[in-house]
Amino acid sequence: MTDGVTAELLSKFSDIPADQWDALNPRGNPFVAHAFLAALEESGSVGPGTGWSPAPIMIRDAGGIPAAALPAYLKSHSQGEYVFDHHWADAFERAGGQYYPKLQIAAPFSPVPGPRLLLRDPALAPAILAAAEAVVDQNGLSSAHATFVEEGELELFRAAGWLTRMGTQFHWQNRDYADFDGFLSALSSRKRKAIRKERAAAQSAVRIAQISGAEITPDHWDAFWVFYQDTGARKWGQPYLTRAFFDLIGESMKDSIVLFLAYDGDRPIAGALNFVSPDCLYGRYWGCTRDVPFLHFELCYYQAIDYAIAHSLPRVEAGAQGEHKLARGYEAVPTYSAHYIANAGFRSAVADFLARESQAMERQIEFLGEMAPFKKG
């Protein structure tokens, strides 16, 4: 690639020493941590039969130590990505092309903004992106897609000529609130009353526990697996993650996990799984075996806010979609992806679409900002 470095395409994350991979993730983002990616692989959540084939790309320095990496996969479909390109695939294939397989740079099944260029030195960005482009070009792939790219990396992708795309999510921002009532005091009276009513209704119906770290037992994972299956079956037809995945992260990532469980007596009836980093609580999965009014909001949004305030975390990211989060104090923020399209004609068409889509997305985020539930003036 350049003097003193070489690039390689690997077939397993678990073959890479964890300490070497995690040295490229110094801020500890849980979704590109070696433990998370290896657990997906070892549990069969990705790999043969899933449409996600691990294909990490790595540059080593002259001493053979990883200096840059991409959490990459060869994809035979567009499921589990949350940045929708199905219409791109349809258009390309109607024109006689073959869209799949494609190269996906992502944390699988995780619509969570974070680092996608794992770099010891930002100067290596052109080399690692050139390596991704070489994988596409040399193997006759249609494209490469880096989804949920953190904003600080966008210019590195743009400088390499990748197209960028904007989306939106709803995140909660901690403005140094002392407690939940302090957060409520920043809202309009009508929204404040509505949230108090929702919390009272949910909390009167169940007992809620926050369970983290070594407190999480196999029984807790058994209960959560039932909740996850219920939600996965309704949303995706079948859950993406296997039961073994939860056992693996329960061992390797326990210090980065918080479960919010709702109990009817001693029986858990609902739960929400969260990951924690030094600067964020990430709400990931939720499910229930009994419908309780407002319990989804309590476990997924309000308990998360409570936890973030108590632990001085700057924000809560509660996952993809969901404008209903706006009324509960979560704010619209942009998300980003980056795309390398090999075919020049198709690239031009996608670039035109993205220019128009971005304008519409900017207007939508501005509109949603005006609808935020906070006091005016």
What characteristics describe this protein?
about 375 residues; alpha+beta; Aminopeptidase; about 35% helix
Helix and strand arrangement:
Blueprint: E1 6-9, H1 18-22, H2 34-42, E2 52-54, E3 57-60, E4 66-70, E5 72-75, H3 86-94, E6 102-105, E7 118-119, H4 125-138, E8 143-147, H5 154-159, E9 163-173, H6 180-184, H7 189-205, E10 207-212, H8 218-236, H9 243-252, E11 257-264, E12 267-277, E13 280-288, H10 295-310, E14 315-317, E15 331-341, H11 344-370
Parallel strand pairs: 6-8, 13-14
Antiparallel strand pairs: 1-3, 2-5, 3-4, 4-7, 5-6, 8-15, 9-14, 9-15, 10-11, 11-12, 12-13
Helix pairs in contact: 2-9, 7-10, 8-9
Summed up:
The protein has helices at 18-22, 34-42, 86-94, 125-138, 154-159, 180-184, 189-205, 218-236, 243-252, 295-310, 344-370, and strands spanning 6-9, 52-54, 57-60, 66-70, 72-75, 102-105, 118-119, 143-147, 163-173, 207-212, 257-264, 267-277, 280-288, 315-317, 331-341.
